[in-house]
Amino acid sequence: MRKLKLLLLVLVTLALALGLTVHRHDQTARLDHGAADGPLELTGTPLERGRYLAAAADCMACHTGAGAEDYSGGVAFDLPIGTIYSSNLTADQETGIGAWSEDEFVDAVRAGVAPGGRHLYPAHPYTSYAGLARNDVLAIRAYLMSLPAVRREVPATTLVWPFSQRRLIGLWNTFYQPAVGYRAQADHDLAWNRGAYLANALGHCGECHTPRNLAYAPAPRHTYQGAITRGWKAYDITPKGLAHWRAGDLDRYLATGHAPGHGSTVGPMKEVVLYSTAQLTPDDRAALVDYLLAGRTGEVVAQPAPQSVANAQSLGGSLYAGACAGCHALTPTSTAPAYADLTGASTVRDPEGTNLLKVLAEGSPHGMGTDMAMPAFGQGYSDAERAALANYVLAQWGGLPPALTPKDAQAAAR
Ligand code: HEC
Ligand code: HEC
Ligand code: HEC
Questions:
Q1: Which ligand approaches the C-alpha of residue 224 most closely?
Q2: Domain total in the chain
């Protein structure tokens, strides 16, 4: 919220300074578009490749609404400044992108510029997709065009002035949009380049895991150091942040949404795993893991188990025993079903309790690898009760003193 207000300030200042010049920042005019082909070793028919790349890029997560046809758009992105709706990517001539040329599609996906010079909001992650190779984008297009055309008019995006002025985004792009196209880094081997491509371009991990600067652009020197996304904390996934993860555990987490000693994924990351990283070939996922952990030295040491400071007689303690212990273990030394094992999870060791309060409020629907789903406690439980529960969990599994307030619980439930 604060950052968005600052962005508003920055944009208005820029706009005034430049007299609202229509700045046609023509990405295609930049000469070098990189290599036509990306570093992945793709097999199968062209359509299979397109389907694989669309999964690796997780186009589905944002372009398919709940209960709607695949890629028919209309997902709402609620911001304090209004709502942006994702587009219909099916082959329908009028409401989809069936009438678009190859170049028009490539420019929209990588440069954020739709036909007629209409600038897309960076809610479509073109700042990451900029690094995609042209032929990979075209394979995704071929796959999308092979799916049933769905006639669906998505609601019009409603942003307050000046954000409603799409050309301001053109201005923003001149400062913050990287050059488009795939360029291998010659000082690294192919496997490293593959991992970098999967993480930075296709997987757009930085869209959530890299903090943004005052102008809402990814802060260049803080890549993957952790950030808040839609109220959830996307943790530090630099080699330092992942210091306690063995490569095999990270691979398992990205493949199944759970790794022993690291808990289960919940919130937006669960969709990433479900639609994207779980769909990668074992080789590609290994390349992604090696890239994330590259440069890490020394033995991987497990985190020491924290000393519990929990009081079972507290409000949180008695609520936990009644509402949670049936699925999760009563104490860290008793056993729980794998997916409900809280031991070692970043979420129960974060003193701010961000994702803990969030998962308590919203639950975690559609369990992966388990029929058991985490219910939502947002209704039925008061803010004070959820704060007490969270404090108890942090004390028991994180060794942390109670610090969360009903106000924190309320903020997380919005
Ligand atoms: C994080 C969410 C997100 C992801 C992931 C995402 N998009 Fe988008 N996309 C959007 C939103 C939101 C818009 C609408 C932006 C606007 O109105 O300015 C959009 C717009 C587009 C458009 C412009 C369509 C039009 O009619 O204007 C195209 C093309 C597109 N996306 C393709 C893709 C493809 C292909 C992928 C995967 C490689 C993808 N998107 C992944 C959120 C996303
Ligand atoms: C019906 C079984 C069930 C109940 C009841 C339940 N949970 Fe969960 N919980 C789960 C499952 C399963 C997961 C793993 C999430 C997934 O796979 O989607 C989970 C995830 C979590 C997480 C995130 C774990 C991580 O690794 O990051 C926390 C924290 C949590 N639950 C706390 C609680 C608390 C506190 C209560 C009681 C108020 C509770 N749960 C009640 C099944 C349950
Ligand atoms: C849509 C936002 C989003 C995207 C995109 C995203 N993440 Fe996440 N990620 C999160 C959030 C939020 C969490 C914390 C939730 C949780 O622990 O389940 C998380 C947690 C993680 C964790 C667990 C860290 C820990 O300490 O427990 C790993 C590892 C991870 N992400 C890796 C990745 C990788 C690799 C990519 C790119 C392929 C990626 N993420 C893309 C939002 C995202």
A1: 3
A2: 3
**Quick count: other Cβ atoms within 10 Å of Cβ 76?**
13
* Residue 301 falls inside a structural domain: no
- As a dihedral over the C-alpha atoms of residue 249, residue 252, residue 254, residue 255, rounded to 10 degrees, the angle is 170
In a domain, 309, yes or no: no
Do 335 and 379 have their domain in common?
A: yes
Per the structure, the complete domain to which residue 280 belongs is given by 206-293
Q: Report the 10 Å Cβ neighbour count for 290.
A: 16
Tens of pLDDT along 56-97? 999 999 999 989 999 999 999 998 899 999 999 999 999 999
CA–CA separation, 188 vs 32, rounded Å?
21
Residues 58 and 153 in one domain: yes
Q: Say yes or no: CB of residue 387 within 6 Å of ligand 2.
A: no
Q: Is the CB of 273 under 6 A from ligand 2?
A: no
For 8, 32, 229, 249, 279, the CA distances from 1, given in Å and listed in that order, are 11, 37, 11, 35, 34
Ligand 1 neighbourhood includes 97 CB (under 6 angstroms): yes
pTM exceeding the 0.90 threshold for the entire prediction: yes
pLDDT digits (tens, 9 = 90+) for 113-151: 999 999 999 999 999 999 999 999 999 999 999 999 999
